[in-house]
Structures are given as C-alpha cells and as structure tokens.
Amino acid sequence: MDGPGRSEHGNGGAVTLSAQIGLQLGALDLQVDFEVQPGELLALLGPNGAGKSTVLRCLAGLAPIDSGEIRIDGTIVDNPVTDTLVEPEDRSVGFVFQNYLLFEHLSVLENVAFGLRARRTPKVSKAKARSVANDWLGRVGLADYAHQRPGTLSGGQAQRAALARCLATNPRLLLLDEPLAALDAGTRATVRRDLRRFLETFDGMRVLVTHDPVDAYALADRVAILDAGRIVQIGTLAEVTAHPRSRYVADLVGVNLVAGTVAGGVLSTASGATVVIADAPDGPSFAMIRPHSVALARVPADGSSTRNAWRGVIVDIDRLGDRVRVGMAGQLPLTAEITTGALDALALQPGEDIVASVKATDIEVYPS
Amino acid sequence: MSKRRGGGESLPVPVLALAVVAIAFFALPLIGLLWRAPWSNAWTYLTDDDALTALRLSMVCSLWATGLSVVFGVPLAWLLARGTFPGREAVRALCTLSMVLPPVVGGVALFFALGRRGIVGQYLDQWFGITLPFTTAGVVVAQTFVAMPFLVITVEAALRQLDTRFEDAARTLGASRWYIFRRVTLPSIRPALGAGAVLAWARALGEFGATITFAGNFPGTTQTMPLAVYLSLETNPEEAIVLSLLLIVISFGVLVGLRGRWMGRAEANMATVVP
Fold first, then answer.
1. B172 vs A119: CB contact, 8 Å cut-off?
2. pTM passes above 0.90
3. Virtual torsion, Cα B151, B153, B154, B160, nearest 10 deg
4. Chain A contacts of B178, Cβ < 8 Å?
5. pLDDT at position B5, please?
6. Are A151 and A104 in contact, with CB atoms under 8 Å apart?
7. How far is B66 from chain A, CA to nearest CA, in Å?
8. What is the pLDDT of residue A149?
9. CB contact under 8 A, A103 and B166
C-alpha cells in the first residue's frame, strides 16, 4: 500500500499522515496543518476547547472537514474539493476514546474481537476472531479477564482492553484521546509507563490528545500546541518549552511571556509598556522573563543598574515551599518568584502597590 | 435527609395520607371483584369454551400487536430520535396521537382508512382481496394502532440518552451502520425495548374501544377478553367477574415477573421515561 506514498520527506518513500484541516464547528474555527511519520507519536497539547479532540475526529472520519486534505499512507481520505471522503469504517484508523467506551453488553474478549468481526474485508470467522483477540489480551496482560464484563475492570485495565480492541484491527494510524484523564492520580504513573511500553511496539503513526504536559513528555516524540483552533507551536517538547510562543506554553513552563515589537533595543507592548532589552533585531518579538529574575520593591528603585521598573498591584501570593510566587497586575502583568524571607521583609499583601524590576540581561528575546 | 434505621424516609403526613388514598383507590376495585367472585363456580366459568376461545384470541392478537409494534416501532423511534428532518415534532405528535385519542375514535378512523370503502382499504379489497374489518387481522391492526406509541416513546427516550460515541467507536473499528445498529445500539437499549414491549403488550391486551369499532364482536374471530367481559356483564355478571380476575392475574403476573428483568434495569441503567 506504499505505491502513491509521499516521498518528498526523503525517507525512502515512507508513508505518513498528512493533515491540513479546516473546520468550522460552532464557536470553534479549526485551521491546523501537520504531518506524522511512521513510528512517530505526535501529542496535541492545549487548553480545553482548543479543538484537540475535534482534530482526532477529523482524522478518524467522524467529522468531515470543510477545507484542506487528509492523507493516510498517501491515500486521500478526506478532500472536500474533490468530494473524497473515506468513511470511518473504511479507514485504517484505531481510536482509543476518552473513557475507553468499551461495549458493556459484551465480554472483554468480545470487545477485542468486535473490530475483526465487524469488518467485511477480510471476512474473519468467529473462532479466528476470538483467537486473535485472545492473543491481544495476552499481550496487554488481560488474558485472565477475557470473559469478564468491561465494568469489572480497573481504569488501567480498561485502557489496555481499549488499546487491544483498536490494535487487533491492525490500523496504520492510532488516535488516543486523553488516554490517562479518566484515571485517578494514584494509578496514572503506572498506567502511563505501561501505555508507553505498548505504544512502542506499534510502528504506525500515532496522535495523542492530552491537556497534561507530563503525558506529552513521557509519550510524545513531538508536541503540537493547539490554542483556539490553531497550532501555535510544534516541535519537540524541549524546543517548545525553551521558547514559548503562547500564553498557554508560558503558563505551562511557568515563565512570563511578553509579546510586542522591538525597535532600537526597546520592546513595546500593545498596552503601552516598554521593556528595555539587551540586544535583539527589530520587529515583532516575544520577551521571556523568568519569575526568579523579577525583583520586587516597595519604592521605585532609581539610580541603580535596573532600567526596567514597572508599577503594579499585587493580585495573588502563592507559597510553594520556601519560594513564593507573587502575581502583579498592571500595564505589564508579571509573576515574580521570591524567597519567603524576602516576602516577610517586604510584608506584602494582595491589593498593595508594588514596583517590579528586571535586568535587561535577564530578558530573553526572540522573533515572533 | 433523616432516615430511620428501619428503612424509608419519613414523609410529611398530608402527603402520606393522600398516597394511602391513592393506594386504596387502586386496591378497592380489586377487593370488590374478589369479594363478589363466585368461587364455587369459578372453574366452570374458566374452562368454558367461549372463555377459553376469547382468552386464546386475546393472547394471540396482543402478541402479534406487540411483535408488529417492535418491528415497526423501533425504526420509527430511531428516526424520531436521530433523524433531522423538517416537521419531526409533527410526525412525533401524529405517531403518538392514538395514546391520547379515545380508542373508539381510533377505531372509526381505522375504519375509514382500512375499511372496505376506506381510502386504502378499498384497494386492499379490490387488488388483493384483503378485508381487515371484522377479522382477527383487524383486531391486531386495532391493537397495534393504540399500543405501538407506548413502545415508540420508551425506545425513543432510551435512544436519545444513549451515548452516540459508542457508535462512533464501533465505526472506527470497521463496523457498518447496520452492524452497529444490531450489535451496539439495540443491545444498549434492550432494557427500554423490553419495558416498551411490555407496556405495548399490556395496552394491546386491554384494548376495547378501537377493537369493537373496527373489528366488531364475533366470538372466535374478534371477541377478545375485554369484549367478552363487557358482554357477559349483561348476561352473566358472575362470568364477567371471573374473566376479569383472570385478566388481572395475567397482567399482574407479567408486570411483576418482568419488572425486575426489564423495567427495573431500565430504570437503573438509563432512567427511561415511561409514561
């Protein structure tokens, strides 16, 4: 099935998932474009309502796209312009849904055999389907649960059963929608480790949706940050977090992100604040300010080496062990991280006026 | 909520009093029947040929009506629950109208639709030689007409509450829509389907007005139990009492027997709306 495969990626005509998705769904305006290589796992990470699950539904064919094109293994499965649409049941796609959606009226074994029995081609006998399903249950460590109802399984077991049910149909593309969200915190780490092990044995393309960066860190090769229907950043997790390009990633990493335009060594924000920076080319840019670089003072510090000082009001104070995060609202909203000793010395309270300052050399600036 | 160790919640006295009146309202007619029942002759009446014929006819017709209600009612419920077409609300109202219509009116309407001079009935007669009024088939038609809506609204409610993502999951596993309907949708609504079928059957068994209007009252072909009871009330009240008690025992037995199996589970699983 690798005949018409797209080979411009220079990896010997290897087949890929290529998705250009345009879809208007209620308030969501989805416009994303990405590719996934065989054996690769791409995590879609983003806040609720960003359109992550909708992307998966588009890839599975459950939500036909309005514009763009989706190719799996070089085969066009959805293209509204040429009116091509391969139905979900005819796509080589496995979908592990949130909450797993095992069929409660069937045994665990029958659940795993379901896809083999349902497919018209190739026609599989009941005995053959059961034997293949049994193999898969053995592989995910559920052989002893074959004849139980899904309701009797734990969250982690149900997830493995759902995974086996998908993989039994031998899909080329595996989609996972929040596979760990339904689990309680105590078992999540173990299940995540097991999931990682099973996913490594699958050599097709994989797309995972999660709102938890820990999942992305543990499971994904690459991360696409989805916000309000757009991919705002894509790359390895290290690349993405090194230079945040969205409020979401900045919050995730725990840094201050200031968007603005650089002109002559000064970055001006839309709200009119100015940030003096060390050295950066002119143009639209992001400035990243680490909270521990932000100094707080009660009175304007003049005459010192600090050129960047902004007035604001304290909105929240979060104690994290011996460190304290102080949120400041104002023309330039900033989060500062100081020691408990400094907090006590300043005797800060929410609602009080404050001056925050940052050394120009502590600000990292990169083009947006 | 303060609960006594013994069990129930303590209810306000006025509510309790009214509830007791309601129970008495349902229990007293039954007690009346039992009190007046001619126990010494009961067996004679029950084994009477006419009574047995009416009972058999009632059973056969009500089961046929239930079967037809399931075969046509489930697809109708599916259409009402999942279909998006203009006038769906009007279609639903039309299909459940016979629940609130006086059954006699239903019988008259059936007569003008399917009678020998009816809009459809005349062609059934001319082309196929099929006559429905005053036949056993007519009884089944009349019973189905009044019973099917009970199944439709029960199953429709269950279909609406069903998480369609299970059907999505089945599609991504390669199942066709027909396969999903048989292997996923139907099993998921089985409790509601059972409850709806029992309700439809009970309604068909008790059907009187539409039957006597559309199918008449001929012993052996169209005289079902309720008709036999009504007629014997004029000629032989003792027999009417015995036949009534028999109907009550059968209905009560089925309701109690199936409640745990179907309706109880329906309530537990999906809180199906039962009229």
1. no
2. no
3. 140
4. none
5. 54
6. yes
7. 24
8. 93
9. yes
- Among the partner-chain residues B171, B179, B187, the one whose CB lies closest to the CB of A105 is B187
Rounded to an integer, what distance in angstroms lies between the CA atom of residue B100 and that of residue B269?
A: 28
Taking 3-state DSSP, the helix, strand and coil percentages for chain A, each rounded to the nearest 5, stand at: 30, 35, 40
The answer to whether the peptide bond before residue A244 is cis (omega within 30 degrees of 0) is: no
Question: Residue B169 and residue A97: Cβ atoms within 8 Å?
Answer: yes
Strand (E) or helix (H) holding A17? strand A17-25
Can you spell out the DSSP letters for B61-126? Answer: HHHHHHHHHHHHHHHHHHHHHH---TTHHHHHHHHHHHHHS-HHHHHHHHHHHHSTTSTTHHHIII
> B100 CB contacts (<8 Å, ≥6 apart)?
none
Q: Which chain B residues contact residue A166 at CB under 8 A? A: 172-173
- The pair of structure tokens assigned to B248 is 């009550």
Shortest distance between the Cα of A123 and any Cα of chain B, in A, equals 12
- Using a CB-CB cut-off of 8 Å, the residues of chain B touching A62 are 168, 171-172
Q: What is the pLDDT along chain A (368 residues), one digit of tens a residue?
A: 333 433 344 444 456 899 999 999 989 999 999 999 988 999 999 888 899 999 999 999 999 999 999 999 888 999 999 999 999 999 989 999 998 999 999 999 999 999 998 887 677 888 889 999 999 999 888 999 999 999 999 988 999 999 999 999 989 999 999 998 888 888 888 888 888 888 888 888 999 999 888 888 889 999 999 999 999 999 998 888 889 988 888 988 889 999 999 988 889 998 888 898 887 889 999 999 999 999 888 865 554 545 788 888 999 999 888 889 999 998 899 999 999 888 888 888 888 888 898 988 899 999 88
B221 phi, psi to nearest 5 deg:
-115, -40
| Residue numbers in A near B190 (CB within 8 A) | 105
B-interface mutation test, from A85, A98, A102, A105, most B Cβ less than 10 A away: A105
How far apart are the C-alpha atoms of A51 and A65, rounded to whole Å?
13
Please tell me the distance in Å from B125's CA to the nearest CA on chain A: 44
Set of chain A residues whose Cβ sits within 8 Å of the Cβ of B163? 101
Percent of chain B with pLDDT over 70: 91
Tens digits of per-residue pLDDT, B80-136? 999 889 999 999 999 999 988 999 999 999 988 998 888 888 888 888 888 888 899
As a residue count, chain A comes to 368
Q: Who among B165, B175, B180 is closest to A97 (CB)?
A: B165
- Which tokens go with A303? 């005459």
Whether the ipTM is more than 0.85: the answer is: no
Contacts of A107 (CB under 8 A, 6+ apart): A146, A147, A148, A149
Question: Minimal Cα–Cα distance from A75 to chain B, Å?
Answer: 17
Phi, psi of B70 (to 5 degrees): -70, -45
Give B168's contacts in chain A (Cβ within 8 Å).
57, 60, 62, 88, 95, 97, 101
The Cα–Cα gap between B198 and B206 comes to 12
